[in-house]
C-alpha cells in the first residue's frame, strides 16, 4: 500500500490531473442506481495521496499557494460531476433544433462550476493538512463545508452529495435521522478516506479503528431502528399515484391535450388494485394537466364528476394569473375536490435557474438567451410553502420537482406536515441515472424527517416511501399505469424529532476544530 501511495504522491502535471479526474469519476458508482459504495474506499484515499504530494511555491501570493490543491480538488470534482450529471444534456435534446447549442454548457459547464466547490474543499483541507489522522479530519471537514455551501450558494444544487454514497439501502439510511445529510457528508468522507493512512509510514491504528467504529455504529443503528416496532397510529391514507409516461415531444403539443387528459382520467377512474380500498388521495405528476384550467372549465367539471365524496386529486398544473401579455404563470399543485372546485393550490417556491426562469432576464435576453427546458413560459416563484389539507384531515406538504433535494428547506417546511407529496417530471432526463438519483434523495428526506413521501413522476420513478425510507411500492421507469397503496401516517408526530440540521452543522464544526487543533499542534512542535 505504501508503494502505491508513493507513486500517486509523486504524480505531476497532467498525470496528477488525470488521476484526480479518474478518482472522482469512479466515485459516481457509489450513487444510485449503481450503489457500489465500496468505490469510496478507493476514490478518497487516492485524493488524500494526491494532496500529500501537493507542494506550494516558496514565494508568490495567496493565489499561487492555493492553486495546486485547488486544481486537485477541481479535477476530482469535474470527474465526479461529469460522470454523475451527464444526463442533464438529455433535456436539451427534447427540442434539439432550439437548444442543442447549449449542450456543452449543460454537460461540461455545469460540472465545471460545481467542481469549484470541491476545489474549495481541498484548499481548506490542505490549509489544515498533516501527515497523520489530522489530515483525514481536514478533508472530511473541507468536503462537509463545501457540500453545505453547494446546498446554499446561488440558490443551491446539492445533487449527489457525497453523503448519499454511504446510504444505498434503508439499513444504511437511518443515521440521517440523527445527523442529516450534512453530517453524513462529513462522516462518509472520513470513513472513505481513512484507508489512506495505510499508505503512510506505519499503520495509523487510531484512524482506522475510529473509521471502523463509525461503520459499526452506522450499521448497528440502522439495524436497531428498522427492528423497532412502528408507532401505532390510527391515521392512514389510501393513495393512488398516476404515472402517465407522456412523451416530452407530446407534452406541450396542443393537438395532444385531449388525449393526454383522457388517459389521466382513465387511470384515475380505474378500479382499485386487488386488496386495496378506493383511493382517498390521487396524485398526478408535475405539470401533468396539459392546459390551463382557466381555459378549460369543462376539465374541472369532468374531474368533479369522476371523484366521489371523500376523494381529492392533487394535480401538477400550470396556474395563470392575469391574461395576455400581463399573465403571470406558476408551476403549481392544485387540490381538486369532488365538487370540481379548486380547494387549494401551492405554487413552487424554489425554481430551477435557466429551466423555469431566466436569471438576470433583462440582461441575458438582450444577448439572445432564453430559458432552456421547462416549457412555453417563464414561471414566477410562489410566496411560501404551506400544507394542503387532504382527506382525513391530514396535512400534505408539497414539493415540486427538485425542491425535495434541499434538506434544510424540507426540515423547516415539513415540521407542520403529516406526509410529503413530491410531484416531478423526470422524463426530461430519459432512461438515465437521473431519475434514480432523484428518487433516492426523496427517500432520504423521508428518513431525515420521519415523514412518509408520496412521489408522482411523469415517467417514473413513482412510489410511496414510509417514514423510515422503506419503499412501500413503486413503479419502474416508463411504466404507464396507476399505483395503489396504503400508508400509515403520524409516526413523526409521536416520536422525538431530532434537529438533524443543527447536529450536522455541529459535526462540520467539530471536525474543523479537530483539524485546526492538529494543524496548530504540528506547527508548535516544529517551532
Protein described:
By secondary structure, the chain is α/β, with parallel strands linked by helices. It folds into 2 domains: 2-227 and 501-526, no CATH class; 236-494, Nitrilase/N-carbamoyl-D-aminoacid amidohydrolase, CATH 3.60.110. Helices cover 45% and strands 14% of the residues. It contains 17 helices and 12 strands. It has helices spanning 2-9, 14-27, 40-52, 62-85, 90-93, 96-99, 103-127, 133-152, 176-193, 205-227, 248-251, 257-269, 297-306, 361-366, 407-413, 433-449, 500-526, and strands at residues 236-243, 281-283, 312-321, 328-336, 342-347, 388-390, 394-400, 419-424, 453-457, 463-465, 471-474, 481-488. The strands form 2 sheets. A 6-stranded mixed sheet has the order 5-4-3-2-1-12. Strand 2 (281-283), helix 13 and strand 3 form a beta-alpha-beta unit. Helix 2 runs antiparallel to helix 3, helix 2 (14-27) packs across helix 4 and helix 4 (62-85) crosses helix 7 (103-127). The longest helix has 27 residues, at 500-526. The chain is globular. The protein starts with a helix and ends with a helix. The model has no long low-confidence stretch (mean pLDDT 90).
Amino acid at each position: 500500500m505504501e508503494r502505491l501511495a508513493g507513486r500517486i504522491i509523486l504524480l505531476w502535471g497532467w498525470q496528477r490531473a488525470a488521476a484526480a479526474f479518474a478518482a472522482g469519476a469512479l466515485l459516481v458508482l457509489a450513487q444510485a442506481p449503481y450503489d457500489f459504495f465500496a468505490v469510496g474506499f478507493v476514490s478518497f484515499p487516492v485524493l488524500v495521496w494526491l494532496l500529500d504530494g501537493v507542494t506550494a511555491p516558496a514565494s508568490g501570493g495567496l493565489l499561487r499557494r492555493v492553486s495546486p490543491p485547488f486544481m486537485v480538488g477541481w479535477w476530482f470534482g469535474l470527474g465526479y460531476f461529469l460522470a454523475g450529471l451527464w444526463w442533464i444534456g438529455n433535456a436539451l435534446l427534447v427540442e434539439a433544433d432550439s437548444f442543442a447549442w447549449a449542450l456543452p454548457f449543460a454537460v461540461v459547464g455545469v460540472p465545471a462550476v460545481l467542481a469549484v466547490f470541491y476545489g474549495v474543499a481541498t484548499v481548506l483541507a490542505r490549509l489544515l493538512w498533516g501527515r497523520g489522522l489530522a489530515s483525514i479530519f481536514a478533508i472530511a471537514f473541507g468536503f462537509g463545508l463545501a457540500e453545505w455551501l453547494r446546498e446554499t450558494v446561488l440558490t443551491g444544487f446539492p445533487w449527489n452529495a457525497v453523503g448519499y454514497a454511504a446510504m444505498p439501502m434503508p439499513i444504511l439510511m437511518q443515521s440521517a435521522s440523527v445527523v442529516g445529510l450534512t453530517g453524513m457528508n462529513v462522516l462518509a468522507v472520513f470513513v472513505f478516506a481513512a484507508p489512506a493512512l495505510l499508505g503512510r509510514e506505519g499503520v495509523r491504528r487510531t484512524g482506522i479503528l475510529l473509521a471502523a467504529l463509525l461503520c459499526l455504529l452506522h450499521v448497528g443503528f440502522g439495524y436497531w431502528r428498522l427492528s423497532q416496532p412502528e408507532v401505532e397510529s390510527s391515521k392512514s391514507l389510501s393513495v393512488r399515484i398516476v404515472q402517465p409516461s407522456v412523451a416530452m415531444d407530446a407534452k406541450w403539443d396542443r393537438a395532444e391535450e385531449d388525449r393526454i387528459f383522457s388517459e389521466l382520467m382513465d387511470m384515475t377512474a380505474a378500479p382499485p388494485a386487488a386488496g386495496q380500498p378506493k383511493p382517498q388521495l390521487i396524485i398526478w405528476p408535475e405539470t401533468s394537466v396539459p392546459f390551463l384550467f382557466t381555459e378549460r372549465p369543462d376539465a374541472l367539471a369532468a374531474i368533479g364528476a369522476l371523484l366521489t365524496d371523500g376523494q381529492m386529486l392533487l394535480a401538477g398544473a400550470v396556474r395563470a394569473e392575469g391574461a395576455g401579455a400581463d399573465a403571470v404563470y406558476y408551476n403549481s399543485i392544485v387540490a381538486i375536490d369532488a365538487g370540481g372546485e379548486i380547494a387549494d393550490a401551492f405554487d413552487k417556491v424554489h425554481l430551477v435557474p435557466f429551466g423555469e426562469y431566466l436569471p438576470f432576464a433583462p440582461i441575458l435576453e438582450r444577448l439572445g438567451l432564453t430559458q432552456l427546458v421547462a416549457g412555453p413560459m417563464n414561471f414566477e416563484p410562489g410566496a411560501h410553502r404551506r400544507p394542503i389539507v387532504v382527506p382525513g384531515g391530514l396535512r400534505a406538504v408539497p414539493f415540486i420537482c427538485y425542491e425535495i433535494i434541499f434538506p434544510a428547506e424540507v426540515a423547516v417546511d415539513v415540521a407542520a406536515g403529516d406526509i410529503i407529496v413530491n410531484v416531478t417530471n423526470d422524463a426530461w432526463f430519459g432512461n438515465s441515472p437521473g431519475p434514480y438519483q432523484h428518487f433516492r434523495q426523496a427517500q432520504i428526506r423521508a428518513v431525515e424527517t420521519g415523514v412518509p413521501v408520496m412521489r408522482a413522476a411523469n415517467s417514473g420513478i413513482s412510489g410511496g416511501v414510509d417514514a423510515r425510507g422503506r419503499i412501500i411500492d413503486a413503479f419502474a421507469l416508463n411504466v404507464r399505469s396507476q399505483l395503489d397503496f396504503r400508508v400509515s401516517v403520524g409516526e413523526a408526530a409521536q416520536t422525538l424529532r431530532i434537529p438533524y440540521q443543527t447536529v450536522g452543522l455541529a459535526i462540520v464544526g467539530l471536525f474543523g476544530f479537530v483539524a485546526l487543533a492538529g494543524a496548530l499542534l504540528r506547527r508548535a512542535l516544529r517551532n
